[in-house]
Write a structure and sequence with these properties.
Helix content is about 60%, strand content about 5%. The protein is mostly helical and about 450 residues long. It binds arginine (ARG). Arginine binds next to helix 6. It catalyses: 2-(N(omega)-L-arginino)succinate = fumarate + L-arginine.
Length: about 450
Protein backbone atom coordinates (compact mmCIF):
# COMPACT_ATOMS: atom_id res chain seq x y z
CA UNK A 1 0.00 0.00 0.00
CA UNK A 2 2.99 2.32 -0.34
CA UNK A 3 2.95 5.02 -2.95
CA UNK A 4 3.78 3.90 -6.48
CA UNK A 5 5.99 6.93 -7.10
CA UNK A 6 8.23 6.86 -4.03
CA UNK A 7 7.02 3.92 -1.97
CA UNK A 8 10.12 1.79 -2.63
CA UNK A 9 12.08 3.07 0.28
CA UNK A 10 9.12 3.03 2.74
CA UNK A 11 8.38 -0.15 4.61
CA UNK A 12 5.15 1.11 6.19
CA UNK A 13 3.95 3.64 3.67
CA UNK A 14 3.95 7.37 4.37
CA UNK A 15 1.61 7.25 7.36
CA UNK A 16 4.37 6.73 9.96
CA UNK A 17 6.20 9.83 8.83
CA UNK A 18 2.98 11.79 8.52
CA UNK A 19 2.07 10.78 12.03
CA UNK A 20 5.47 11.82 13.32
CA UNK A 21 5.59 15.22 11.68
CA UNK A 22 1.99 15.90 12.65
CA UNK A 23 2.20 14.93 16.31
CA UNK A 24 2.49 17.74 18.81
CA UNK A 25 1.63 15.64 21.85
CA UNK A 26 5.32 15.16 22.78
CA UNK A 27 5.46 18.85 23.68
CA UNK A 28 1.90 20.18 23.92
CA UNK A 29 1.10 17.72 26.70
CA UNK A 30 2.61 20.48 28.80
CA UNK A 31 -0.68 22.36 28.26
CA UNK A 32 -2.84 19.71 29.88
CA UNK A 33 -3.93 21.75 32.90
CA UNK A 34 -4.89 24.71 30.74
CA UNK A 35 -6.67 22.36 28.33
CA UNK A 36 -8.79 20.86 31.11
CA UNK A 37 -9.54 24.31 32.56
CA UNK A 38 -10.61 25.59 29.13
CA UNK A 39 -12.79 22.56 28.55
CA UNK A 40 -14.52 22.96 31.88
CA UNK A 41 -15.29 26.63 31.26
CA UNK A 42 -16.61 25.79 27.80
CA UNK A 43 -18.67 22.91 29.18
CA UNK A 44 -20.34 24.98 31.90
CA UNK A 45 -21.23 27.62 29.35
CA UNK A 46 -22.74 25.01 26.99
CA UNK A 47 -24.88 23.70 29.84
CA UNK A 48 -25.99 27.15 30.98
CA UNK A 49 -27.01 27.94 27.39
CA UNK A 50 -28.91 24.62 27.14
CA UNK A 51 -26.69 23.56 24.26
CA UNK A 52 -26.02 20.33 26.11
CA UNK A 53 -28.06 18.81 28.95
CA UNK A 54 -27.14 19.14 32.60
CA UNK A 55 -26.91 15.37 32.75
CA UNK A 56 -24.37 15.09 29.94
CA UNK A 57 -22.60 18.11 31.42
CA UNK A 58 -22.22 16.33 34.74
CA UNK A 59 -20.84 13.20 33.10
CA UNK A 60 -18.33 15.19 31.10
CA UNK A 61 -17.25 17.20 34.13
CA UNK A 62 -16.61 14.07 36.18
CA UNK A 63 -14.73 12.57 33.24
CA UNK A 64 -12.51 15.64 32.91
CA UNK A 65 -11.75 15.61 36.64
CA UNK A 66 -10.85 11.95 36.43
CA UNK A 67 -8.54 12.61 33.47
CA UNK A 68 -6.87 15.48 35.31
CA UNK A 69 -6.21 13.18 38.25
CA UNK A 70 -4.76 10.55 35.90
CA UNK A 71 -2.49 13.07 34.17
CA UNK A 72 -1.34 14.45 37.51
CA UNK A 73 -0.49 11.00 38.72
CA UNK A 74 0.90 9.25 35.67
CA UNK A 75 1.58 11.96 33.13
CA UNK A 76 -0.09 12.40 29.75
CA UNK A 77 0.06 9.32 27.49
CA UNK A 78 1.89 10.08 24.25
CA UNK A 79 -0.18 8.60 21.47
CA UNK A 80 1.12 10.02 18.21
CA UNK A 81 -1.87 8.86 16.22
CA UNK A 82 -4.01 11.13 18.41
CA UNK A 83 -1.81 14.08 17.47
CA UNK A 84 -2.21 16.53 20.29
CA UNK A 85 -3.29 17.16 23.87
CA UNK A 86 -6.81 18.08 22.75
CA UNK A 87 -7.43 14.78 20.96
CA UNK A 88 -5.67 12.64 23.53
CA UNK A 89 -7.95 14.08 26.20
CA UNK A 90 -11.10 13.80 24.09
CA UNK A 91 -10.32 10.18 23.29
CA UNK A 92 -9.74 9.38 26.95
CA UNK A 93 -13.02 11.10 27.81
CA UNK A 94 -14.82 8.90 25.29
CA UNK A 95 -13.21 5.78 26.81
CA UNK A 96 -14.39 6.88 30.25
CA UNK A 97 -17.93 8.14 29.66
CA UNK A 98 -18.96 7.00 26.19
CA UNK A 99 -20.72 8.98 23.51
CA UNK A 100 -21.58 12.03 25.66
CA UNK A 101 -17.87 12.90 25.36
CA UNK A 102 -18.48 13.89 21.77
CA UNK A 103 -20.72 16.78 22.87
CA UNK A 104 -17.92 18.74 24.54
CA UNK A 105 -16.49 19.91 21.22
CA UNK A 106 -19.77 21.61 20.21
CA UNK A 107 -19.18 25.24 19.15
CA UNK A 108 -15.45 24.83 19.53
CA UNK A 109 -12.47 24.00 17.32
CA UNK A 110 -8.97 23.01 18.22
CA UNK A 111 -7.97 26.33 16.73
CA UNK A 112 -9.63 28.46 19.42
CA UNK A 113 -8.93 25.74 21.98
CA UNK A 114 -5.17 25.78 21.48
CA UNK A 115 -5.02 29.57 21.34
CA UNK A 116 -6.85 29.68 24.67
CA UNK A 117 -4.68 27.00 26.28
CA UNK A 118 -1.49 28.65 25.13
CA UNK A 119 -2.53 32.08 26.35
CA UNK A 120 -3.36 30.64 29.76
CA UNK A 121 0.03 28.92 29.83
CA UNK A 122 1.96 32.04 28.85
CA UNK A 123 0.03 34.03 31.46
CA UNK A 124 1.17 31.62 34.16
CA UNK A 125 4.71 31.69 32.77
CA UNK A 126 4.77 35.49 33.04
CA UNK A 127 3.66 35.27 36.67
CA UNK A 128 6.42 32.78 37.41
CA UNK A 129 9.08 34.87 35.71
CA UNK A 130 7.92 37.93 37.63
CA UNK A 131 8.41 36.08 40.91
CA UNK A 132 11.90 35.06 39.87
CA UNK A 133 12.85 38.56 38.77
CA UNK A 134 11.52 40.02 42.01
CA UNK A 135 13.77 37.66 43.97
CA UNK A 136 16.72 38.73 41.82
CA UNK A 137 15.94 42.39 42.50
CA UNK A 138 15.81 41.73 46.23
CA UNK A 139 19.21 40.06 46.07
CA UNK A 140 20.64 43.02 44.14
CA UNK A 141 19.20 45.55 46.59
CA UNK A 142 20.52 43.69 49.62
CA UNK A 143 24.04 43.44 48.19
CA UNK A 144 23.89 47.07 47.01
CA UNK A 145 22.99 48.20 50.51
CA UNK A 146 26.00 46.34 51.93
CA UNK A 147 28.21 48.07 49.39
CA UNK A 148 26.62 51.51 49.06
CA UNK A 149 29.99 53.12 49.84
CA UNK A 150 32.35 50.47 48.45
CA UNK A 151 34.55 52.17 45.86
CA UNK A 152 35.29 50.46 42.58
CA UNK A 153 36.45 51.66 39.18
CA UNK A 154 33.69 52.60 36.77
CA UNK A 155 34.47 51.77 33.16
CA UNK A 156 33.77 53.09 29.71
CA UNK A 157 35.24 51.11 26.79
CA UNK A 158 36.24 48.71 29.60
CA UNK A 159 38.89 51.32 30.44
CA UNK A 160 38.92 52.79 33.91
CA UNK A 161 36.89 55.98 33.76
CA UNK A 162 35.75 57.38 37.12
CA UNK A 163 35.39 55.85 40.56
CA UNK A 164 31.90 54.63 41.38
CA UNK A 165 30.35 52.66 44.18
CA UNK A 166 29.62 48.96 43.90
CA UNK A 167 26.13 49.64 45.25
CA UNK A 168 25.54 52.00 42.34
CA UNK A 169 26.71 49.39 39.86
CA UNK A 170 24.43 46.71 41.31
CA UNK A 171 21.47 49.09 41.37
CA UNK A 172 21.94 49.67 37.64
CA UNK A 173 20.87 46.04 37.18
CA UNK A 174 17.96 46.58 39.54
CA UNK A 175 16.72 49.24 37.11
CA UNK A 176 17.12 46.95 34.09
CA UNK A 177 15.17 44.20 35.80
CA UNK A 178 12.43 46.70 36.71
CA UNK A 179 11.98 47.47 33.03
CA UNK A 180 11.97 43.76 32.21
CA UNK A 181 9.21 43.17 34.71
CA UNK A 182 7.15 46.00 33.32
CA UNK A 183 7.64 44.63 29.80
CA UNK A 184 6.32 41.22 30.85
CA UNK A 185 3.42 42.81 32.65
CA UNK A 186 2.52 44.89 29.57
CA UNK A 187 2.39 41.66 27.59
CA UNK A 188 0.22 40.07 30.25
CA UNK A 189 -2.35 42.87 30.02
CA UNK A 190 -2.38 42.70 26.24
CA UNK A 191 -2.84 38.94 26.07
CA UNK A 192 -5.71 38.81 28.52
CA UNK A 193 -8.59 38.43 26.06
CA UNK A 194 -10.22 35.08 25.50
CA UNK A 195 -10.12 33.47 22.03
CA UNK A 196 -12.51 30.70 23.16
CA UNK A 197 -15.64 30.63 21.00
CA UNK A 198 -13.92 31.96 17.88
CA UNK A 199 -14.22 28.32 16.80
CA UNK A 200 -12.32 27.32 13.64
CA UNK A 201 -12.05 30.84 12.23
CA UNK A 202 -15.48 32.39 11.68
CA UNK A 203 -17.28 32.09 15.00
CA UNK A 204 -20.19 29.71 15.54
CA UNK A 205 -23.92 29.46 14.88
CA UNK A 206 -24.55 28.13 18.39
CA UNK A 207 -25.91 30.57 20.93
CA UNK A 208 -22.76 30.62 23.08
CA UNK A 209 -21.73 33.14 25.73
CA UNK A 210 -18.12 34.14 25.17
CA UNK A 211 -18.22 36.62 28.02
CA UNK A 212 -19.01 33.83 30.45
CA UNK A 213 -16.08 31.65 29.38
CA UNK A 214 -13.75 34.63 29.29
CA UNK A 215 -14.67 35.51 32.86
CA UNK A 216 -14.42 31.92 34.08
CA UNK A 217 -10.85 31.71 32.77
CA UNK A 218 -9.74 35.01 34.26
CA UNK A 219 -9.68 36.93 30.97
CA UNK A 220 -10.77 40.57 30.90
CA UNK A 221 -12.99 40.10 27.85
CA UNK A 222 -13.49 37.93 24.78
CA UNK A 223 -11.42 38.79 21.69
CA UNK A 224 -13.25 40.95 19.14
CA UNK A 225 -12.41 39.22 15.86
CA UNK A 226 -12.62 35.47 15.33
CA UNK A 227 -10.03 35.40 12.54
CA UNK A 228 -7.52 37.30 14.62
CA UNK A 229 -8.32 35.12 17.64
CA UNK A 230 -7.14 31.89 16.06
CA UNK A 231 -4.20 33.32 14.15
CA UNK A 232 -2.76 35.63 16.77
CA UNK A 233 0.48 34.56 18.40
CA UNK A 234 1.57 38.08 19.37
CA UNK A 235 1.29 37.08 23.01
CA UNK A 236 3.86 34.33 22.54
CA UNK A 237 6.14 36.72 20.67
CA UNK A 238 5.66 39.38 23.35
CA UNK A 239 6.74 36.79 25.87
CA UNK A 240 9.79 35.79 23.81
CA UNK A 241 10.81 39.39 23.19
CA UNK A 242 10.52 40.23 26.87
CA UNK A 243 12.46 37.07 27.66
CA UNK A 244 15.15 38.06 25.17
CA UNK A 245 15.50 41.55 26.62
CA UNK A 246 15.74 40.06 30.10
CA UNK A 247 18.28 37.52 28.89
CA UNK A 248 20.41 40.34 27.44
CA UNK A 249 20.52 41.96 30.88
CA UNK A 250 21.34 38.71 32.64
CA UNK A 251 24.04 38.03 30.08
CA UNK A 252 25.69 41.41 30.59
CA UNK A 253 25.75 40.89 34.34
CA UNK A 254 27.09 37.37 33.81
CA UNK A 255 29.82 38.78 31.59
CA UNK A 256 30.80 41.24 34.31
CA UNK A 257 30.93 38.51 36.92
CA UNK A 258 33.17 36.46 34.62
CA UNK A 259 35.50 39.42 34.11
CA UNK A 260 35.48 40.33 37.79
CA UNK A 261 36.29 36.76 38.80
CA UNK A 262 39.27 36.60 36.45
CA UNK A 263 42.59 36.84 38.34
CA UNK A 264 43.88 40.08 36.77
CA UNK A 265 40.68 41.75 38.06
CA UNK A 266 40.04 39.76 41.22
CA UNK A 267 37.02 41.87 42.19
CA UNK A 268 34.93 38.88 43.26
CA UNK A 269 35.30 35.32 44.23
CA UNK A 270 32.57 32.86 43.39
CA UNK A 271 31.38 30.40 45.99
CA UNK A 272 32.04 26.70 45.39
CA UNK A 273 28.32 26.24 44.87
CA UNK A 274 28.43 28.24 41.62
CA UNK A 275 31.84 27.23 40.30
CA UNK A 276 33.41 24.15 38.83
CA UNK A 277 36.94 22.86 38.75
CA UNK A 278 39.01 21.61 35.85
CA UNK A 279 39.73 17.94 35.26
CA UNK A 280 43.34 18.76 34.37
CA UNK A 281 44.30 22.09 35.98
CA UNK A 282 44.10 21.78 39.76
CA UNK A 283 44.19 25.51 40.44
CA UNK A 284 41.06 26.22 38.38
CA UNK A 285 37.81 27.59 39.66
CA UNK A 286 35.62 28.39 36.71
CA UNK A 287 32.55 30.66 36.66
CA UNK A 288 30.47 28.10 34.76
CA UNK A 289 27.10 29.23 36.06
CA UNK A 290 27.75 32.77 34.83
CA UNK A 291 29.02 31.46 31.51
CA UNK A 292 25.89 29.37 31.06
CA UNK A 293 23.66 32.32 31.85
CA UNK A 294 25.54 34.16 29.10
CA UNK A 295 25.22 31.13 26.84
CA UNK A 296 21.52 30.60 27.50
CA UNK A 297 20.79 34.17 26.52
CA UNK A 298 21.84 33.37 22.97
CA UNK A 299 19.53 30.38 22.85
CA UNK A 300 16.64 32.45 24.19
CA UNK A 301 17.16 35.00 21.43
CA UNK A 302 17.22 32.05 19.02
CA UNK A 303 13.81 30.90 20.28
CA UNK A 304 12.44 34.37 19.64
CA UNK A 305 13.82 34.31 16.13
CA UNK A 306 12.33 30.89 15.51
CA UNK A 307 8.79 32.10 16.19
CA UNK A 308 9.29 35.35 14.27
CA UNK A 309 10.27 33.24 11.25
CA UNK A 310 7.33 30.89 11.74
CA UNK A 311 4.76 33.67 11.85
CA UNK A 312 5.98 36.19 9.35
CA UNK A 313 4.44 34.77 6.18
CA UNK A 314 1.24 33.15 7.42
CA UNK A 315 -2.06 34.16 5.83
CA UNK A 316 -5.19 34.31 7.97
CA UNK A 317 -6.30 32.30 9.75
CA UNK A 318 -4.84 29.14 11.33
CA UNK A 319 -2.06 27.26 9.58
CA UNK A 320 -0.40 24.16 10.93
CA UNK A 321 2.94 25.96 11.01
CA UNK A 322 1.57 27.54 14.15
CA UNK A 323 1.83 24.23 15.97
CA UNK A 324 5.55 25.01 15.99
CA UNK A 325 4.89 27.98 18.27
CA UNK A 326 5.13 26.01 21.47
CA UNK A 327 8.62 24.43 21.54
CA UNK A 328 10.50 27.75 21.38
CA UNK A 329 8.31 29.30 24.05
CA UNK A 330 8.69 26.32 26.36
CA UNK A 331 12.43 26.18 25.74
CA UNK A 332 12.93 29.89 26.29
CA UNK A 333 10.88 29.77 29.46
CA UNK A 334 12.88 26.88 30.89
CA UNK A 335 16.20 28.49 30.00
CA UNK A 336 15.17 31.86 31.36
CA UNK A 337 13.82 30.46 34.62
CA UNK A 338 17.06 28.62 35.21
CA UNK A 339 19.17 31.65 34.28
CA UNK A 340 17.24 33.89 36.68
CA UNK A 341 17.58 31.37 39.51
CA UNK A 342 21.32 30.92 38.87
CA UNK A 343 21.92 34.66 38.71
CA UNK A 344 19.97 35.21 41.93
CA UNK A 345 22.03 32.53 43.65
CA UNK A 346 25.29 34.04 42.41
CA UNK A 347 24.37 37.56 43.50
CA UNK A 348 23.36 36.30 46.92
CA UNK A 349 26.58 34.38 47.48
CA UNK A 350 29.35 36.27 45.61
CA UNK A 351 32.19 37.50 47.77
CA UNK A 352 33.18 41.00 46.73
CA UNK A 353 36.77 42.06 47.30
CA UNK A 354 36.60 45.81 48.08
CA UNK A 355 40.36 46.25 48.63
CA UNK A 356 41.12 45.05 45.11
CA UNK A 357 38.39 47.23 43.60
CA UNK A 358 39.66 50.32 45.42
CA UNK A 359 43.30 49.67 44.50
CA UNK A 360 42.36 49.24 40.86
CA UNK A 361 40.37 52.47 40.86
CA UNK A 362 43.34 54.33 42.36
CA UNK A 363 45.87 52.76 40.02
CA UNK A 364 43.73 53.71 37.05
CA UNK A 365 43.88 57.50 37.76
CA UNK A 366 40.12 57.45 37.95
CA UNK A 367 40.02 60.85 39.69
CA UNK A 368 41.62 62.68 36.76
CA UNK A 369 38.27 64.29 35.89
CA UNK A 370 38.02 65.55 39.48
CA UNK A 371 41.40 67.27 39.12
CA UNK A 372 40.33 68.88 35.85
CA UNK A 373 37.03 70.00 37.42
CA UNK A 374 38.94 71.47 40.39
CA UNK A 375 41.14 73.50 38.03
CA UNK A 376 38.01 74.88 36.38
CA UNK A 377 36.21 75.62 39.62
CA UNK A 378 39.05 76.83 41.86
CA UNK A 379 41.49 78.38 39.39
CA UNK A 380 39.05 79.58 36.73
CA UNK A 381 40.91 77.67 34.00
CA UNK A 382 38.91 76.76 30.84
CA UNK A 383 38.03 73.05 30.82
CA UNK A 384 40.08 72.23 27.70
CA UNK A 385 43.22 73.67 29.29
CA UNK A 386 42.43 71.97 32.60
CA UNK A 387 42.09 68.69 30.70
CA UNK A 388 45.59 69.21 29.28
CA UNK A 389 47.17 70.09 32.64
CA UNK A 390 45.55 67.03 34.20
CA UNK A 391 46.92 64.87 31.42
CA UNK A 392 50.44 65.96 32.39
CA UNK A 393 49.76 65.09 36.03
CA UNK A 394 48.54 61.62 35.05
CA UNK A 395 51.65 61.11 32.93
CA UNK A 396 53.87 62.06 35.85
CA UNK A 397 52.05 59.76 38.27
CA UNK A 398 52.25 56.95 35.75
CA UNK A 399 56.01 57.48 35.35
CA UNK A 400 56.44 57.42 39.11
CA UNK A 401 54.15 54.41 39.44
CA UNK A 402 51.91 56.07 42.03
CA UNK A 403 48.28 57.13 42.38
CA UNK A 404 47.19 60.64 41.47
CA UNK A 405 46.56 61.62 45.08
CA UNK A 406 50.07 60.42 46.00
CA UNK A 407 51.73 63.13 43.89
CA UNK A 408 53.36 65.76 46.10
CA UNK A 409 52.07 69.30 46.05
CA UNK A 410 55.48 70.39 44.68
CA UNK A 411 55.10 67.98 41.76
CA UNK A 412 51.66 69.39 41.05
CA UNK A 413 52.78 72.99 41.35
CA UNK A 414 55.59 72.27 38.91
CA UNK A 415 52.98 71.19 36.37
CA UNK A 416 50.86 74.29 37.00
CA UNK A 417 51.57 76.93 39.65
CA UNK A 418 47.87 77.68 40.09
CA UNK A 419 47.43 74.35 41.90
CA UNK A 420 47.47 74.53 45.73
CA UNK A 421 47.03 72.28 48.79
CA UNK A 422 43.23 72.28 48.63
CA UNK A 423 43.34 70.10 45.50
CA UNK A 424 44.22 67.11 47.69
CA UNK A 425 40.63 67.00 48.97
CA UNK A 426 39.29 66.03 45.54
CA UNK A 427 41.94 63.55 44.43
CA UNK A 428 40.95 60.60 46.59
CA UNK A 429 38.49 58.08 45.20
CA UNK A 430 36.25 58.54 48.24
CA UNK A 431 36.06 62.30 47.72
CA UNK A 432 35.35 61.70 44.07
CA UNK A 433 32.37 59.42 44.57
CA UNK A 434 31.01 61.54 47.42
CA UNK A 435 31.03 64.59 45.15
CA UNK A 436 28.86 62.96 42.46
CA UNK A 437 25.72 63.68 44.39
CA UNK A 438 23.43 64.62 41.51
CA UNK A 439 20.12 62.74 41.43
CA UNK A 440 20.86 59.19 40.30
CA UNK A 441 24.61 59.74 40.74
CA UNK A 442 27.11 57.41 42.37
CA UNK A 443 27.55 59.22 45.72
CA UNK A 444 26.79 56.84 48.61
CA UNK A 445 24.00 59.16 49.80
CA UNK A 446 22.32 59.01 46.40
CA UNK A 447 22.74 55.26 46.20
CA UNK A 448 21.23 54.82 49.65
CA UNK A 449 18.27 57.00 48.69
CA UNK A 450 17.63 54.94 45.54
CA UNK A 451 17.95 51.73 47.57
CA UNK A 452 15.29 53.05 49.94
CA UNK A 453 12.97 53.73 46.99
CA UNK A 454 13.63 50.24 45.65
CA UNK A 455 12.93 48.63 49.00
CA UNK A 456 9.62 50.44 49.19
CA UNK A 457 8.71 49.28 45.69
CA UNK A 458 9.64 45.70 46.58
CA UNK A 459 7.79 45.83 49.88
CA UNK A 460 10.96 45.25 51.89
CA UNK A 461 10.70 46.71 55.45
N1 LIG B 1 -2.05 20.77 17.72
C1 LIG B 1 -2.56 21.92 17.04
C2 LIG B 1 -1.65 23.15 17.35
O1 LIG B 1 -0.94 23.08 18.29
C3 LIG B 1 -3.96 22.24 17.45
C4 LIG B 1 -4.75 22.95 16.42
C5 LIG B 1 -5.01 22.05 15.28
N2 LIG B 1 -5.91 22.61 14.35
C6 LIG B 1 -6.05 22.16 13.13
N3 LIG B 1 -6.88 22.77 12.36
N4 LIG B 1 -5.39 21.14 12.71
O2 LIG B 1 -1.65 24.11 16.64
Amino acid sequence: DSNAMWGGRFSEGPTAIMREINASIPFDKRLWQQDIAGSKAHLKMLVSRNIITAEDGQKILEGLDKIAAEYAEKGVPEDWSLEDIHMVTEKRLADLIGSAAGRLHTARSRNDQVATDFKLWVRDAIDMVDKGLTALQMALVIRAEEHAATVMPGFTHLQIAQPITLGHHLMAYYEMISRDRSRFSDGRKRLNQSPLGAAALAGTGFNIDRHQTAKALGFDAPTANSLDSVSDRDFALDYLMSATQTAIHLSRLAEEIIIWASQPYGFVSLPDAYSTGSSIMPQKRNPDAAELVRGHSGRIAGCMNALVMTMKGLPLAYSKDMQDDKPPVFEAHDLLSLAIAAMTGMIETLTFIPEKMRKTAEAGFSTATDLADWLVRQAGIPFREAHHITGSAVRLAETKGIALDALSIEDLKAIDPRIDESVKAVLSVDASVASRNSYGGTAPDQVRARILDAKKTLGLN
